């Protein structure tokens, strides 16, 4: 299916994670569709991804940015606007489940909010004039933690709850400009970060097995590619009348009847 993304300027934050991470997978999916991904991330890995895609004949740009720094985000939005003149899509993807719980300092809690939620607001605020010019759309990457809780991660949970609130708020704010705003909600996805977390646990393999067994559809984790495909469809004109929605790409993990899990 041609999603009509060829030549579209798509900004993806937090997209220079490890190979196989959600942001990195989204970028490659965009490039393969002929879109022009703009990688906004603080990790120097972005230079490598930029070069690799360019060597494959695909257009992309990496702009090194600390997304917890408001001034850097403002400068980055200006660079993108001056280079391309418009932004067709903004995908707010950055997120770190940082374990900032009730025992953490207030400074750590505030930093978690700054990175995981405030960056969405700031990025959207400064990119908005260019999004309006393109009559583009905004996609926020959310987490089931906003709805289910997790324990020990107050900063991340509060942030992701706020992201869902902002998604609906912006959908209302921007409907007059024909700008769609949606959120993809992720539950259990096998990423390098998830793999690293499992390896820190004494009973990692048993923990992993217990999680997988609780995912109704196929008793398996969602792949980053499945998440990327859902993102691309949602930002495309194939979803032209979808706005203000929370789209779950999770194999039924959050909503389906727990009777499915009995064996």
| CATH architecture classification name | 3-Layer(aba) Sandwich
CATH C-level class: Alpha Beta
Q: Provide the succession of SSEs.
A: EHEHEHEHEHHEHHHE
Q: Give the C-alpha Rg.
A: 18 Å
How big a fraction of the residues is strand? 5-15%
How many separate domains make up the residues?
1
Which fold name corresponds to the CATH topology? Rossmann fold
CATH level-4 homologous superfamily: NAD(P)-binding Rossmann-like Domain
* Alpha-carbon distance between the two ends: 38 Å
Contiguous low-pLDDT stretches (5 residues minimum) are none
Work out the helicity level: 40-55%
Order of strands, widest sheet: 3-2-1-4-5-6-7
Helix-strand layout with pairing:
Layout: E1 9-13, H1 22-32, E2 36-41, H2 45-55, E3 61-64, H3 70-84, E4 89-92, H4 106-134, E5 137-143, H5 145-148, H6 154-173, E6 180-186, H7 192-200, H8 204-212, H9 224-235, E7 246-249
Parallel strand pairs: 1-2, 1-4, 2-3, 4-5, 5-6, 6-7
């Amino acid at each position: 299916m041609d999603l009509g993304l060829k030549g579209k300027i798509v900004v993806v934050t937090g997209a220079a994670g490890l190979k196989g991470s959600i942001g990195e997978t989204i970028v490659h999916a965009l490039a393969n569709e002929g879109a022009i991904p703009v990688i906004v991330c603080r990790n120097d890995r972005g230079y490598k991804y930029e070069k690799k895609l360019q060597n494959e004949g695909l257009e992309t740009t990496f702009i090194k940015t600390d997304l917890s720094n408001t001034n850097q985000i403002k400068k980055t939005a200006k660079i993108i606007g001056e280079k391309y003149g418009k932004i067709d899509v903004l995908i707010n993807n950055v997120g770190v489940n940082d374990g900032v719980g009730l025992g953490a300092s207030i400074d750590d809690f505030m930093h978690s909010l700054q990175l995981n939620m405030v960056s969405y607001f700031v990025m959207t605020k400064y990119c908005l004039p260019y999004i309006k010019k393109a009559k583009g759309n905004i996609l926020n990457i959310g987490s089931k933690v906003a709805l289910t809780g997790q324990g020990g991660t107050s900063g991340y949970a509060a942030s992701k709850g706020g992201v869902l609130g902002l998604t609906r708020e912006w959908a209302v704010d921007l409907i007059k400009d024909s700008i769609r705003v949606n959120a993809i909600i992720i539950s259990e996805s096998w990423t390098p970060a998830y793999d690293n977390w499992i390896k820190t646990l004494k009973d990692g393999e048993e923990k992993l097995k217990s999680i997988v067994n609780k995912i109704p559809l196929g008793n398996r984790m969602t792949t980053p590619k499945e998440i990327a495909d859902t993102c691309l469809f949602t930002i495309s004109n194939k979803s032209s009348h979808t706005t203000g929605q929370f789209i779950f790409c999770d194999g039924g993990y959050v909503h389906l009847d727990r009777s499915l899990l009995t064996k």
